[in-house]
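Interim report to the steering committee. The following record documents the input for Ribonuclease Y (523 residues).
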Amino acid sequence: MSNSQFFIIILSDIIAIGVGIFAGKYIFKRSFDQKDKEAQERAAEILRNAESAAENIKKDRILEAKEKYLRLKTEFEEDANKKRVILQTNEQKLKQREQSMNQTMEQNKRRENELETLKTNLTQQLETATKRREEAEKSLQQQVIQLEKIANLTADQARDQLVDALKAEADTRAGSYVKSAMEEARLTATKEAKKIVIETIQRTAAEHAIENCVSVFNIENDDIKGKIIGREGRNIRALEAATGVEIIVDDTPEAIVISGFDPVRREIARLSLHRLVQDGRIHPARIEEVVAKTRKNIDDEIVEIGERTVIDMGIHGLHPELVKMIGRMRFRSSYGQNLLQHSREVAKLCATMASELGLNTKLAKRAGLLHDIGKVWPEESDLPHAILGMELAKKYKENPEVCNAIGAHHDEIEMTSILSPIIQVCDAISGSRPGARREMMESYIQRLRDLENMAMSFEGVEKCYAIQAGRELRVIIDADNVSDEKAGMLSFDISQKIEKEMQYPGQIKITVIREMRSVAYAR
């Protein structure tokens, strides 16, 4: 190909490209102009729509403002009318009050005038009365002088004689009244009470065991004593340290004495000794092991005794700690009376008495069983056992009536339930029944002496004797100096003094004996 031809081809391509560029530019321009025109038309339409919407919104706002203005105007007018009515009403009330005050002031003025008149009249009457009283006093003095001359007595002497006569008559009448009142009370109030108590006692029976502060462990021969003591006493020291009791090994044949105030510890020591003697291996390590096992067995036995007791008594829902403390009662005694047997007996007495009186027997039995629960609390406490038992019952969510009965059975707190006096009475019945408890001979004799000396301190008492183990006091009085009426008063006064100054189980009967003897001789 020649150069001219090549040039022509290139030139034609350039021309074709230029024509294409020009045509594309023209077409693009026409498309851009068309889109620009459409955009302007759309913008104009949007502007027209916006102006129309703004006009509509403006009209709506104007209408809303007019409506709000009308509503506020109406409310203001209504409020103004109400206030106007209130003002008118208040004005009328003020006018009425002014009229009432004017009337009151007029009435007060009239009353002041009347009071002045009355005051004047009273002053005149008082002056007249004073004059009359002075005249009456003068006349009375003259009459007294004349009476003194006639009777040969002064006014003070006559008054003293009259007072003595009236006092003697009052004492006689008071004695008769007290005697009749007491007889009537005995006939009416005591009859049913005695019946209920006697029937309750007859329907209840229990076995009684005497517990001591020492236990005796029997052995087959005295050679075992040496093993128990150990080399230089190490075994017996280990045993005492582990159990908390005293082991007394003396010359008593075939016996070892276990001493301690806690009966549970004594029982642990007794059973531990029994197992050690049977096993034959007695040394400190073995002693600690056996005592630990025995203590675990005793704790299990205490729980079992408590559970068996509540099941036998038909009591449900007790806290496990209370059940455990009931089991500990088995190893505790009070004045020689086993505490668990005493509590069971009181519970039965309470249930029987509550049924006779138409009360809740379950609550009564529950309170009777728990009334001495404070005596077996293992920790030291300065509270009386009744208050401590009440606090424990409250702690373990017992019924408020049961708590009050426990706390009030020794009068430490006020009784707020009819159940409380029943618990107190049944506790006294169980404790004061002959054979239930023991007391030291010295304290027993001292109590009888105090009882007799207290009766001898009264004027007119010649002799007195405490009989029936201090349940009855017979007082012999001087018949010449003490009348029958005074004898009745004397028995009442002695009983009151005994109640205030002495502590004793059950009740004491005071019998005052007045005997009149007339002796003459025929010769």
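Confidence is low (pLDDT under 50) at residues 205-212. The committee is asked to note this result when reviewing the revised timeline.
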